[in-house]
Amino acid sequence: MKHKIYVTRKFPQVALDLLATRSEVGVFPEDGPMPKEELLRAVQDIEGLLVAGARISPEVLEHAPKLRALSNASVGHDNLDLAALTARGIPVASTAGSLEETTADLAFALLLAVARRVVEGDRYVREGRWDRWQFELLHGSDVYRKTLGLYGFGHIGQAMARRGRGFSMRIFYHARHRVPETIEKELSAEYVNRERLLSESDFLSLHVPLTPETHHLIGAPEFRGMKPSGFLINTARGKVVDEEALVAALREKTIAGAGLDVFENEPHVAPALLTLPNVVLMPHVGSATGETRLRMAMLAAQNLLDLLEGRRPKNLLNPEVFERRGDSSFDFAQEGEHVEP
Ligand code: DGY
């Protein structure tokens, strides 16, 4: 019998086709947020849910009595109530492993763009203001040999360190847990305390998940602790930064600039950020390349099938669900079983 599943957003056809080989698939047809009432109706009869951006609250779960597997098409999972899912015994998988390098590319692109004033220069040329070569035109800041401070040192933070090394940067990191010495050595990354990370970094790049502990991790006191020549790069989650304090820090030149892919109340952007020249803004597209979005979609689809069919995906967010079951019917999915695009 085919599983009944629902996909909360318009999704690549090739991933829907994979799901359809073994499931009856319902799909929200728009590439936008699903109205809550519709979501509550859609989940009533389903066993598997593929979530792309939708918020899955305890209320949604109450409306989904048959739900037994959830696949989240992102690496962050602040859109889910993971504790409630775990309490219900519903295994949840993410697309970790499919998008880290791509997200680090964008973080580094923002770093370069804000340091070298790429967006300002582009506007300057397009607006026809460029009438001669000038020695003092659009001075930016050097990147090579500067200090790159990474707050959070998971796969994206480490991918960022590799990019920094390519620019001969000194790599500092701060995280809840130190990584093994072999990784520190391989990436020439030095673990420093929070104060040193803030005060000695030329570029502070955030790579922590959004949790109650990281909400407003960077606010007015942290900006005051940074160099006035320092830049903030955020491709993690908007709520990790106190946006009001960021606007004040940029206006008052407490820091030199920022490169932002994420915002506190997306898609709303604090109006002041739109007027500041020393900020580069992107619309939450860290993982948005054709190749990576396809890889994410296929992985999310495969994860959902694995969970529904008793295989354990590698990027399971709540392994305790399996452990609690002591379930021998759940095997680790074999590498070869994952369909790659
Ligand atoms: C992620 O994978 O977490 C991206 O930011 C998309 O939400």
Can you tell me about this structure?
The chain has two domains: 3-98 and 289-323, Rossmann fold; 100-281, Rossmann fold (3-Layer(aba) Sandwich), CATH 3.40.50.720. It has 14 helices and 14 strands. Residues 334-341 have low confidence and may be disordered. The chain has a seven-stranded parallel beta sheet with strand order 8-7-6-9-10-11-12, sandwiched between helices. A five-stranded parallel beta sheet has the order 2-1-3-4-5. The two termini are 26 Å apart. Helix 7 links the parallel strand 6 and strand 7. Helices cover 36% and strands 15% of the residues. With 341 residues, it is α/β, with parallel strands linked by helices. The structure holds (2R)-2,3-dihydroxypropanoic acid.
Topology:
Elements: E1 3-7, H1 13-22, E2 23-27, H2 36-42, E3 48-51, H3 58-62, E4 69-72, H4 82-87, E5 92-93, H5 100-115, H6 118-126, E6 147-151, H7 155-166, E7 170-174, H8 181-187, E8 189-191, H9 194-200, E9 203-206, H10 220-224, E10 231-234, H11 243-251, E11 257-260, H12 271-275, E12 279-281, H13 290-308, E13 311-312, H14 320-325, E14 331-332
Parallel strand pairs: 1-2, 1-3, 3-4, 4-5, 6-7, 6-9, 7-8, 9-10, 10-11, 11-12, 13-14
Helix pairs in contact: 1-13, 5-7
The site of (2R)-2,3-dihydroxypropanoic acid (DGY) has 6 residues, from loops.
Task: Please describe the structure with a list of short key phrases separated by commas or semicolons.
341 residues, alpha/beta, Rossmann fold, seven-stranded parallel beta sheet, five-stranded parallel beta sheet, 14 helices, 36% helix, binds (2R)-2,3-dihydroxypropanoic acid
